[in-house]
Amino acid sequence: xxxxxxxxxxxxxxxxxxxxxxxxxxxxxxxxxxxxxxxxxxxxxxxxxxxxxxxxxxxxxxxxxxxxxxxxxxxxxxxxxxxxxxxxxxxxxxxxxxxxxxxxxxxxxxxxxxxxxxxxxxxxxxxxxxxxxxxxxxxxxxxxxx
Length: 146
Ligand SMILES: CC(C)(COP(=O)(O)OP(=O)(O)OC[C@H]1O[C@@H](n2cnc3c(N)ncnc32)[C@H](O)[C@@H]1OP(=O)(O)O)[C@@H](O)C(=O)NCCC(=O)NCCS
Hints:
By secondary structure, the chain is of the alpha+beta class.
């Protein structure tokens, strides 16, 4: 079992609030699952929880290293909250296929938010190999940065 990748993201809560205000349910239903919507809307500071889930999904894509490739969609990643408040992730559809193809078997996430910002951190665990230069030998292949 390896750490396959890590990811982090930060978003302004105001940006999420503006998208909700401008696009309403169209935005919410495109990005969030029914479970997530119910969780956020039941809370006083709903926007912060929506923003936290936005950041979590972006952080997950960074941990996978794929970004928004074919098959990945917002609603195929669901942030599920355990009884003690701890967030977990479930994948389905095309996103699940991408995750499985990469050999990622688990995704750990952590979310935090305040009035202004939400942030999230993710760790992808799996059998796959992280494809980045790690040694001095491979580093040389990239040459100078200028
Ligand atoms: C975990 C805890 C330290 C978080 O402190 P906090 O400063 O209020 O947290 P932040 O505002 O930075 O972040 C909130 C996020 O923490 C995460 N979180 C909450 N409880 C968590 C837990 N037990 N383990 C890991 N992460 C947790 C959630 O993702 C939450 O965001 P979300 O509700 O939108 O999913 C605090 O909530 C705590 O002590 N909880 C104890 C258990 C508890 O009170 N449970 C109530 C269940 S109803």
